[in-house]
């Protein structure tokens, strides 16, 4: 019995000491790098691994190791590119703000039934949708040039002067 208590104490004391001083008890495994440089390094590491696996031959193709290494390389390269871009700030959308308020109202008023009836999820989804919508760009920014055509006069179409009914006048004079 004494051995059992002693072994528990031997295991528990280092964990408690680590907890009290703030050290991590278990090794932390980061699934994704935190900076663009770390993501670029991971991409390069997987690229080197893929090149090594290509040299080994058909076994790596058959087991799928090469494909996994190439997929990880592409994933971290895209992640590094996304992290290296400057953040884009958009003005808050009034419609998205409205739906965020609706979601907050549902949370406060209805509680559980609002979640059960998916009212909160719907309001949050609409808020995210309207937040993601960008404001329409003017045509000049898209490279489209607006050309003004001169208005045609009634003298170009002499028959427009003789028509008395407005519907016929618009159809005949629209040419």
Explain this structure.
With 175 residues, this protein is an all-alpha fold. It is built from nine helices and no strands. Mean pLDDT is 76; it is low at 25-29.
The SSE string, one letter per element, is HHHHHHHHH
Name the structural class: mainly alpha
As a percent range, the share of strand residues is under 5%
Instruction: Estimate the helix proportion, in percent.
Output: 55-70%
**Total helix count?**
9
Cα-atom Rg, whole angstroms?
33 Å
Topology:
Blueprint: H1 2-21, H2 36-56, H3 58-63, H4 65-84, H5 94-109, H6 112-116, H7 119-132, H8 159-162, H9 166-173
Features of the shown structure:
single chain; 175 residues; mainly alpha; 9 helices; flat
Short characterization:
By secondary structure, the chain is mainly α. Helices cover 65% and strands 0% of the residues.
